[in-house]
Write a structure and sequence with these properties.
The chain has three helices and five strands, in the order βααββαββ. The chain has about 140 residues and is α+β, with helices and mostly antiparallel strands.
């Protein structure tokens, strides 16, 4: 395992940050030994989560996103923290995938994809305000 302990970056919450966040998570995941498929899933989920924070959490206001990556035991863990309004993606119902595409609500699919791409999604409100979203991908044994 080429990755020790925690790695953290803090970026201004803007669309420009997404590429940097993806790159950071991909590099850390590779160093941690996550296989390519699992890593793709994690990067997709983190990208979706960060996009949600920027678009819906901050709604165009300035803010920041802290991305913390940890290789912990049997899992690769990414935590996203913000000071945006409270939002728990787990509270979204899964979309009705039997509906024709045109009738599905816009935007709900992203959260669904995020949940399907990782093995565990946790959310908590931070005591100082804002959110902490934890995404976990297990290492394949």
């Amino acid at each position: 395992m080429g990755m020790d302990g925690l790695q953290v970056i803090t970026l201004e919450a803007g669309v420009g940050a997404l590429n940097e966040i993806r790159q950071f998570v991909a590099n850390c995941g590779q160093a941690a030994g996550l296989d390519a498929k699992a890593l793709d899933g994690m990067v997709l989920a983190v990208d979706e989560a960060a996009s949600n924070i920027i678009q819906h959490g901050y709604s165009g206001r300035t803010g920041w996103i802290e991305v913390e990556v940890e290789s912990a035991g049997e899992g690769f863990v990414v935590r996203l923290r913000d000071r945006a309004k409270p939002f728990d993606p787990r509270s979204f119902p899964d979309p009705n995938l039997s509906l024709p595409l045109a009738r599905r609500p816009i935007g709900k699919l992203g959260v669904f994809l995020m949940r399907k791409s990782v093995d565990q999604v946790r959310h908590r409100l931070l005591p100082e305000g804002g959110n902490e979203l934890t995404l976990v991908k297990w290492f394949q044994s």
